[in-house]
Amino acid sequence: MAYLPRVLVVEDEPAIAELIAVNLRHNGFAAVCVEDGPSAQRELDAVLPDVILLDWMLPGQSGLQLARKWRAQARTRAVPILILTARGDEPDKVAGLDAGADDYITKPFSTQELLARIRAVLRRRAPEQASEALEAGGLRLDAAAHRLSFQGKELRIGPTEFKLLRYLMAHPERVHARAQLLDKVWGDHVFIEERTVDVHVKRLREALGSASAMVETVRGAGYRFTAQAGQAGVRAEPP
């Protein structure tokens, strides 16, 4: 029997939840619907889904609070999260991405857009297949073990930021435009705004801490990884 990607739908409006679930099931997904944070946590404790569709406005804890909590937990850190909300202003989108969401869907949305975004985040989980360890400027990224350390100290980093850093470290000293990063890291950017890259770069720098200077902004062009901004005396790897 073919494996059906499991989608956890956290939505407190039954009519919307049922509509989403029906469309998911008709298009090759296994859908599980819950209406609040505690119910969602019970499902996550039982079986990890492949994707979480998370409504912003929920009783008790908001979707943003839940996203932050799940991103902070090792077991749920790598599960893609799509925020569902009627709030479509740019500050709201940025807030959703800053909370740990991989994507943001504004209500009302079409079934085809929803399905396309879910498929996109599933493809994004590993668009750049690489298992080798990368080292530069005191940073060590082990793709196979999904570990990142700086000067021997392990760093906590989200799954999207990990993939972004892996790509940048694999192509050092080169300027990468936002559109290029969307294509290479996210895998399919038909529905993804370039602003998304800026948000994830900000989160990446926060995760890197004192190593953040190695991810440089090239004004008007994009971003570049350089080991020269790391420890003094560490040579950058050739491009």
Largest β sheet strand count, sense and barrel closure? 5 strands, parallel
> What string gives the helices and strands in order?
EHEHEHEHEHEEEEHHHEE
> How many strands?
11
Q: Tell me the fraction of residues in β-strands, as a range.
A: 15-25%
With strands numbered from the N-terminus, the spatial order across the biggest sheet is 2-1-3-4-5
Written description of the protein model:
The protein is α/β, with parallel strands linked by helices and 239 residues long. Helix content is 38%, strand content 19%. Strands 2-1-3-4-5 form a five-stranded parallel sheet, with helices on both faces. The protein is globular, with a radius of gyration of 18 Å. It starts with 5 loop residues before the first strand and ends in a 14-residue tail after the last strand. Residues 231-239 have low confidence and may be disordered.
Task: Supply the key terms.
239 residues, alpha/beta, 4-stranded antiparallel sheet, 11 strands, 38% helix, 19% strand
Question: What's this, in brief?
Answer:
The chain is an alpha/beta fold and 239 residues long.
How are the SSEs ordered, and which strands pair?
Blueprint: E1 6-10, H1 14-26, E2 30-34, H2 37-46, E3 51-55, H3 63-72, E4 81-85, H4 90-98, E5 103-106, H5 111-124, E6 133-136, E7 139-142, E8 147-150, E9 153-154, H6 159-170, H7 178-186, H8 195-208, E10 215-218, E11 222-225
